[in-house]
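Structure tokens please, single chain.
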Amino acid sequence: MAKEKDVVVNPVLTEPDWFKKYCGIMSEINRQLETGEMTLDHLDTNNEHKNPWGIPDWLRERVNRERTILQAFFGQEFDLIRFVEDVHRYGRKRLSKALKFGWEPHFFPEILMSADATYPGWKIKPEKWFFQASDQGKLLLLQPDGSLVVSNPAYKLGGVTVLIDTRLKPAYNDGQQMYTKDNLLGPIIEDLRKQQKIQDYSPRNSRFHTSGNECEVIKPILAAKLGLKPEQVRLETEIEANVIPQLYTDMPRQNDGDTNTSEWREEFFASRDYRLRGGRSGNGGLAHVYCIDAVRRWSDQGCRFLAVL
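Here you go.
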């Protein structure tokens, strides 16, 4: 499959309205400090717990980069206040740990990725049947209580801040292929296999030969390692797995569609018995999406998770 050209990101952009608003807030804070209406102690306390004043220095560059990338891909500007608040609440210490594991914070705007949508950076869309299945109410999401609800629609990005696993999906190598430096999920899977909580496989720390149902066993343990609640961790949805390599063209994952392995998706199809999978280069790469028995395992099919902050 021919590789799509990277999106050219233009770093020269006018300041968005939300950033102008932030500058206005900071100006008002300075005024109140000068007049004595606000003290430094008050400012420090409020910043620590609520962060109402804007973007901390350690987060500013990341926010500006996210804004630039989103505008290049979608051709429009988005309010990133929620991104700022979510990452600030997650905290610098936990974020530093996540980055060492190869997980980065990013923002999915609330936007429909419909079959007829035309965004500048969206070159490869999922197969047409995916959109049809969503419109027919056949794509389902598992709830914490074990029930299934319709993903309505499954091709909508949710307006959420997420931690993304940046690793490239590896090419098949007789079942021995591994995700690069899998220093978070690999040890978790290895321990679960040692404890016989998921089926054994060699190598034990491989993400491959895991079933869709076994992914549910992995979720809460991964969440705890990231300092999150179990319901904050899930597999990537089909539309997320399709968009991420095309949106973040500086990630190793930009080539996910060029490798001949597949990954489980978060959506179930019609019932708890079948789950989506996709991404195999020989079947269309980033366009490839299919459903298969959730209890089955393959040496060329892995799993990739995502955390919602």
